[in-house]
Specification:
The protein is an all-alpha fold and 172 residues long. It is built from 5 helices and no strands. The longest helix has 40 residues.
Amino acid sequence: MHSETPRTPVARPLYTPQERQRRDATVWTLVQGVLAPVQFLIFLVSLVLVLRFLLTGEGQGAAIASVVVKTLALYAIMVTGCIWEKVVFGRYLFAPAFYWEDVFSMAVLALHSAYLLSLWLGLLSPQGLMLLALAAYAAYVINAAQFLLKLRAARLQQSDDIRAHGPSGAAA
């Protein structure tokens, strides 16, 4: 009977040094850094308008328009995010470092797109549209949390790398 010492798997760092260099050098990192909080602010305003309509029946037009604007902001961040991922990781979607975030982003995109399709084709009542928007928003919040956790992990990795190798990346 062999007794083996269990090995702790070594996790792949979020970014290789080359990927981190490409991330820091591309304008798409700044674009994502600007669009993400803008989209979040649009989401907050829209959420208030949607909830107001659902609770009072008032402001239907503003609520509907706000979800359309939120969806357009989502499309903008998705397209630019794909470009960012291509520059940093060499593929437009599903890079290993962001695989599950991208998978869940597809669900977020599908729910927001279903809202637009339902609005355009008149498939749902105004209340139904707002409930669909809330489902899309719940998925968006989960996805945003995924990305925030990934951003935190990247910062922690970078701090660890600096402590281990110094700011230049060379072994100390």
